[in-house]
Amino acid sequence: MDSLERLLPFIREAERLKTVTRTAWAHDGRRESTAEHSWRLALFAGLAAGQLPGLDREKVLLMSLIHDMGELYGGDVSAALCPDPQEKIEEERQAVRNAFSLLPEAQAASLLALWEEYNANATPEARLVKALDKAETILQHNQGRNPQDFDYRFNLGYGKNFFEDNGPLRKLRKRLDAETAARITPDDERA
């Protein structure tokens, strides 16, 4: 089988992310999919990596595209539900191993290492993608047509630690927090 044809089983399996819904809503009020989130994160991260010196843009893009592959079979578990982090990572690790096993062995190993690097937050590229993953989520929450009872206050603390070590990311976070604060109504304050 030609090398490109060997990718087809994995690409077919990855299609599942198009139907995994998240607890974020699009501007038109429909629920966002994990694939949509990953695409916009990749766009955001690819553009950002071009403005920040010393980053491997190809790694940033691929990491952005695969960072949520662990949701392929078990779905998205909202951070607001406070899932057990170790249990969540183990379930996602098994999912990515299953999905990546559809690739040629060297590619599967490479993607698994990249996914692990992201989850360990171990490199400048991983730290950028991790922060922008949180930023994209907050941006979608602020941009989407959300249900009446949507908890914007959760966003004010969500992933804040991923922005602390980088000036441009701190500035971005400050902007997103201001946008979030503007969405909080007096009823939210009393809750």
Provide the descriptors you would attach to this structure in a database record.
Hypothetical protein af1432, single chain, 9 helices, 191 residues, mainly alpha
Summary, kept brief:
This protein is mainly α.
Blueprint (SSEs and pairs):
Elements: H1 8-14, E1 21-25, E2 31-33, H2 34-49, H3 57-66, H4 71-74, H5 85-100, H6 105-120, H7 124-143, H8 167-183, H9 186-190
Antiparallel strand pairs: 1-2
Helix pairs in contact: 2-3, 2-7, 3-6, 3-7, 5-6, 6-7, 7-8
Descriptive overview:
The protein has nine helices and two strands; from the N terminus they run H-E-E-H-H-H-H-H-H-H-H. By secondary structure, the protein is mostly helical. Helix 3 crosses helix 6, helix 5 packs antiparallel against helix 6 and helix 7 runs parallel beside helix 8. The protein is globular. The N and C termini lie far apart (60 Å). The mean pLDDT is 92.
- Trace the largest sheet across and list its strands: 1-2
Order of helices and strands, N to C? HEEHHHHHHHH
Silhouette:
globular
Structural class estimated from helices and strands: mainly alpha
